Recover the amino acids of this structure.
């Protein structure tokens, strides 16, 4: 087969192990710590996560076996196709070849189910019957709802109230999958009740929803909490994307010059990128590029610090680039990229010089997304649009330089549940947001007095 | 590879020709006629469709080459995977094997783009610059919008006003793909203006929207009209589904005992089924099953007559099972299955005993759809749910009989744009609709005095 648009793997060719970048890091990552700076121990995490996932979070083995029941569920939509964006290449008149890994083929429409099925499986093995989580726009909540149903666990999703009211379709998806979707703040938790007493009309926030989901998990029988990005084990589960992509590239005899993913919490980027970072560590000439919104410039502008994963500081302190846990993100449509922090492993890889980071403003991302939809057909999620915009920049550079260049990007999800952003863009109502130094300094006040990671 | 969940074809294995059932019919179909009963000639259709598609509509060759530029666009998402619903089989505890052809992988999320790209291509070759069409819920309008953009044609979609207002997301999809989406009735056509003068607050109807789209096409320069189902050439383009499925079945050494598709205008059913009907004509022991809603029982209860394809009688009379062109469908959520008529080729195949027809009520379809989502992950379109409900019936029969049985169904699209129906079902607000004999007799008054097809 010569130069096809799509490359499939058979199910037999699916990876049987996840790849753990920690095994290949030139220097080990600093550990998560408590507010006194003392490393977090497994038993401190046990009320929140099952012990098998806590162990996986701390594991430094290079390869981790994917359990057969997890593989079985992944096979409902995996392996995902590797595709070539020939129509976009032609429209850009570029000598670059643009390949994309289409993670939009999952039932929830994004890469999120890759870790959802793994996390639910490990919880099930540990005897857990119920999982809680939070969700903003609903992409993670719907993925976990589906995974819980597939394994027969109950799922309670605390959804930020304003999204619950304004975006009813993600909530309906969760209900189809049998999950209970609760507007947050709710009266079900102490955290929710306290907030509602103080601010009965609050639209809610991701920070509040996390607090409710964790409180629910630690106070309910046979219940744990599940997180959709940021943590090491979540990134690990996503590496199935990059491992498949490597096999697919090999099948058609190409190897990327540049690998691109958008970075919110970091798992989508890491999922495609880390197996290629491994190649880079072992001598391959490949650039690896994380793309974030200019409105939330963690990797490109924020300091490397110890900070909490949530507003209420219920999580341990993680070594990461952070805008401060009280950061109030601008209302960009890429809801998945509005987090204040970033996966510690991604931040560490950046400090080690293994990856590069770029920030792109909202309008350029939508321009790329619309061009994509009008040439390649598929409508990208606004998060994915950041990877596309970076790919377009690379393709233009290839054209300027008159050089062939193989670009590989993570097409992390479709935008069929996110069309209001497109409507705003097409009607001219969208604007760019650039975080000012003053705004950043203000939100960074929340980390004053916290311990500092070594070398920061 | 032994018994995988998914079977892929390479792009090289994609069919290069469409299959035309007309070549294998034991008796030829009656022709479309005018109101005097005279067969319609190509020149009568020329103002509405380009001549190459008119010729294809009347063609009786067994195999029709798929033009290379059409193949190239189809490859953006085809070949689609053939999948086995193992989790559902386990949940039903059935000895049946349930395979499904996943047409939800297209950019528009359904099978509709298969004919959209072909129709746009033929129009482009014929020098047409603009296409018009109508759409109800928006599935066809969005598919044509995408196809027009891929080939560089303009697209104007007349969308029933109540859907335009209540279902803004399909409209946004069309706009992302650069189409103009117009609420119908509109002031752009004489038909629309007349209706608006008489009924300024009308919610619109598919009949009015068809009238507007055809009027726009025949009165505008370099403009033609495009239809998403019913006609022979539309069914022809969809046979790529069944031809791929045959190759995929062959790859894993299975052959279906029963082939199932839901039937609205008939193209989704025919697309999967007709290549298997061909096998049946040539001696294969395979049952082929069209499934319609009990609320719109064309194949199971309506008479075989000559009737118009639209309320305003702008189309020729087609030989088909019809509830009468003034039929007002009950408000079931499967918007694509609420048509008053049915593809003449499907109706003829039924009369020839080549296929069987079943009607299933709404609640049973949603029950099957929710069970599907909770076992197989993917959320089905409400139309697709009818095929699923029939498959569940067949699987239960296999269990009762203790027999293995291979079931193949057309999973024609996902339901991510149709979640309100699920919400109504899960909240207990949905009901069944059965058409009474009196209601049917009333709507059939509209065909009194029209010519009758031979043998009717």
């Amino acid at each position: 087969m010569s130069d096809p648009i799509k490359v499939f793997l058979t199910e037999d060719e699916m990876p049987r192990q996840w790849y753990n970048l920690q095994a290949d890091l030139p220097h080990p990552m600093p550990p998560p710590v408590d507010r006194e700076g003392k490393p977090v121990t497994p038993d401190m995490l046990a009320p929140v996560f099952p012990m098998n996932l806590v162990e996986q979070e701390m594991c430094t083995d290079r390869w981790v076996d994917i359990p057969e029941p997890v593989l079985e569920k992944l096979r409902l939509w995996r392996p995902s196709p590797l595709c070539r964006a020939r129509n976009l290449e032609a429209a850009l008149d570029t000598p670059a070849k643009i390949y994309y890994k289409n993670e939009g083929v999952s039932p929830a429409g994004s890469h999120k189910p890759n870790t959802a099925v793994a996390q639910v499986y490990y919880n099930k093995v540990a005897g857990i019957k119920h999982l809680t989580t939070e969700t903003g726009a609903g992409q993670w909540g719907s993925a976990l709802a589906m995974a819980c149903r597939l394994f027969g666990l109950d799922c309670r999703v605390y959804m930020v109230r304003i999204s619950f009211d304004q975006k009813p379709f993600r909530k309906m998806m969760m209900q189809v999958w049998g999950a209970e979707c609760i507007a947050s703040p709710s009266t079900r938790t102490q955290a929710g009740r306290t907030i509602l007493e103080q601010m009965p009309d609050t639209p809610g926030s991701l920070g509040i929803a996390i607090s409710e989901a964790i409180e629910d998990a630690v106070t309910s029988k046979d219940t744990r909490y599940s997180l959709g990005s940021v943590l090491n084990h979540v990134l690990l589960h996503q590496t199935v994307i990059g491992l498949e992509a490597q096999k697919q590239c090999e099948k058609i005899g190409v190897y990327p010059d540049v690998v691109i993913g958008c970075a919110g919490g970091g798992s989508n980027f890491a999922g495609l990128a880390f197996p290629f970072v491994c190649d880079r560590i072992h001598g391959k000439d490949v650039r690896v590029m994380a793309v974030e919104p200019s409105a939330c410039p963690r990797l490109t502008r924020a300091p490397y610090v110890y900070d909490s994963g949530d507003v209420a500081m219920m999580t341990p302190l993680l070594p990461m680039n952070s805008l401060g846990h009280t950061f109030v993100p601008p209302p960009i449509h890429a809801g998945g990229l509005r987090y204040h922090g970033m996966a510690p492993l991604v931040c560490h890889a950046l400090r080690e010089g293994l990856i590069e980071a770029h920030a792109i403003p909202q309008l350029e991302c939508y321009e790329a997304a619309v061009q994509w939809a009008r040439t390649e057909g598929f409508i990208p999620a606004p998060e994915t649009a950041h990877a596309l915009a970076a790919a377009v920049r690379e393709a233009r550079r290839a054209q300027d330089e008159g050089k062939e260049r193989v670009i590989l990007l993570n097409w992390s999800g479709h935008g069929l549940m996110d069309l209001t952003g497109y409507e705003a863009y097409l009607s001219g109502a969208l604007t760019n947001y650039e975080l000012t130094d003053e705004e950043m300094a203000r939100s960074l006040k929340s980390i004053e007095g916290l311990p500092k990671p070594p070398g920061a």
Summary: Residues 382-401 of chain A form the longest helix (20 residues).
